[in-house]
Amino acid sequence: MTALEAQKQAKKWIYICFLMQFGIILYWEITQYVDLFPFNDVAGLDLRESLRASYANDIPKIGIILVLWLCLRWMTRPWYLFLFASSLIYYIVFLGIQISIWWPRYIVGATPEQLKEYNEKFAHTIKILPTFGNHVAVDLQHNILQLWTLAIIIVMFLALKKLFQAKSRVDGVLLHQQIENA
Prior knowledge:
Elements lengths: L2 H31 L13 H27 L6 H28 L4 H10 L18 H42 L1
């Protein structure tokens, strides 16, 4: 595979990452503000709380869109791999936060405060797993968010692999040219 072919393959993966970024932002905004009951239950949510959640979730994701654009534009620069890897790390941390918020409440049970919040916001939404006692199931809205985040991590990892391959091909071509010119 030539350096140009490797770069084209890497760009395809970055474009897929772009689509997934726009998709997760759109998904978040729709499920945060559009009442799709029983999929979500936004009827009683405070607008300020929703706006804070949107800012906290959307600003980093918009930053990642900028990083992806920079990677496409300056793929031959040495710093783009660091930026791309940082974006991947963000999503790993984001998924870790999602898992740490939702799954311990199901596996080991929710505290009385968590149970109260759950009953106010999520008790009547669609769930895949059963709720029993103080073990509250993750709602479908957040299951999809977690699976989408996992899919983004996988695609970004594959894109990063392609970016490394493209960079090594370009570096190999540059080294070969330097040897020939010496």
